[in-house]
Amino acid sequence: VQLVESGGGSVQAGGSLRLSCAASGFSYSRYCMAWFRQAPGKGRERIASISNYGYTKYADSVKGRFTISQDNAKNILYLQMNGLKPEDTAMYYCAADPNLLNLGVCTGTDFAYWGQGTQVTVSS
Questions:
Q1: 41-70 pLDDT, tens digit each
Q2: Cα–Cα nearest to 106, from 96, 116, 115
Q3: What is the rounded (10 degree) CA torsion for 91, 30, 63, 6?
Q4: What is the dihedral sign for C-alpha 88, 13, 16, 6?
Q5: In this structure, which long-range contacts are made by residues 110-115, counting pairs with CB atoms below 8 Å and at least 24 apart in sequence?
Q6: Residue 102, Cβ density class (10 Å: 0-12 exposed, 13-18 middle, ≥19 buried)
Q7: Could you tell me if 49 and 57 are in contact, meaning their C-beta atoms sit under 8 angstroms apart?
Q8: Which residue in 63, 69, 32 sits closest to 47, CA to CA?
C-alpha cells in the first residue's frame, strides 16, 4: 500500500488549499480514510475521515472550513481547506485502514497505512 500526499504549500490567512492523497495497492471494499495533521511540538490530530460508506467526521477545529472527499474511480482522497488560519500550519498526512469502522463510521486513530506528509503553512 502506498499513500502519496500533494497540494501543500504556503498561503495567507483566509486562503484555500486542496490536498490530494493518491492511494495504490489499497483495494478493500470496507475502509476508513482520514487526514491527520501535526504541528511542531504538538501531538497528531485526526481532523477529517471518510468511510467507504461515505460517512464523514470532522474535528471541531476544522468543522465548517474543511471538506473531505474521495474519487473512488481514481483512488484519490481530497481535503479541501477553506478559511485557513495560522493555527492550521502543520504537516498533513493521509491515512487508511480496512478495520477502523464502527457502524460504517470511521473510528480510532491507529491507522495501518500512512503517507509521507505534505506541509501546509498559513501566514497571518
A1: 999 999 999 999 999 999 999 999 999 999
A2: 96
A3: 30
A4: negative
A5: 111/32, 111/34, 112/1, 113/1, 113/3, 113/26, 114/3, 115/3, 115/4, 115/5, 115/21
A6: exposed
A7: yes
A8: 63
